[in-house]
Amino acid sequence: MSILRVCEQHLLHFWNLRIGEDSKSFMCARGCPSPHPQTVEWAHTHGDTFAALGHILGDDGRIEPCVSNVLSNMWKSFYGNFGKKMRTAPLNVKLAQLKRCVLPIASYRMSRWPYQVHTTKRIDRTQTKMVRILIGTRVQAGEEPEDFLLRRNRLASVTARRHGNWSRIWAKQVTDWNNHLHRDRNKHSWAAKTLHYHDAAWLQDQRRIHASGEHSSLLAGRTCTRAFPGIVHKRWHDGVDVASLM
């Protein structure tokens, strides 16, 4: 609470800015003690997610809330930009509009998300559905419903892949951002310092310290660092390893 007060006073003293009441929010990492009652009273909202600069952070490191919010906004943009006037437009014009008006909603945030296969399927599936709507494939005379669905989905998938799957754009952004943070001129930035806090090397040391038995490994095993039970979400360095193979 004292840190929040100091930030508030600093903004007021040096910048003559005030934190709006609806902007006072915080999030405690899962597994931490409950917040002090004074902190809860100070805040307008608090919970297991935190909105910051267009991103939604999860208290356990998950990106699912942010991804779900992004996909929802992408669909809103899709239906808001493809009205009656766009129905008769050529397909290449529609795809250019899709890249210009819908994709930036995700690409703005992709470089922060640790790359993971499960989420790539959601993103590519969304792209394929949008492309399928833009193509507007019609049933041919005498065509069976099953054959029509297969042909329509295959055409949408091929078109999306030919113009670049969004998951590959995500992989490129992750690797580019990771390379950017590892340059010497950027090593003193907050992002680079945070990236090296409790990184892969540190986790290997924890496994070495807590290793037991002849089958112990530095790549798998207990680290004794968990604050709560549950799913271990993808860490940044693991996501970079997967993205670099794409």
Short description:
The chain is 56% helix and 5% strand.
Sequence-ordered SSE layout with sheet pairings:
Blueprint: H1 2-15, E1 25-26, H2 37-42, E2 45-46, E3 49-52, E4 55-58, H3 64-81, H4 84-87, H5 91-101, H6 103-110, H7 117-135, H8 145-162, H9 166-181, H10 190-195, H11 200-209, H12 236-243
Parallel strand pairs: 1-2
Antiparallel strand pairs: 3-4
Helix pairs in contact: 3-7, 5-7, 7-8, 9-12
How are the strands of the biggest sheet laid out side by side? 1-2
State the distance separating the first and last CA atoms.
44 Å
Portion in helices: 55-70%
The main pleated sheet reads as: 2 strands, parallel
Q: What count of structural domains?
A: 3
Radius of gyration computed on alpha carbons: 23 Å
Low-pLDDT residue intervals, each spanning 5 or more residues: none
In terms of DSSP E residues, the strand content is: under 5%
**Mean pLDDT over all positions:** 89
Structural class designation: mainly alpha
How many separate helices? 12
Count of DSSP E strands? 4
Quick one: overall form? globular
SSE topology string: HEHEEEHHHHHHHHHH
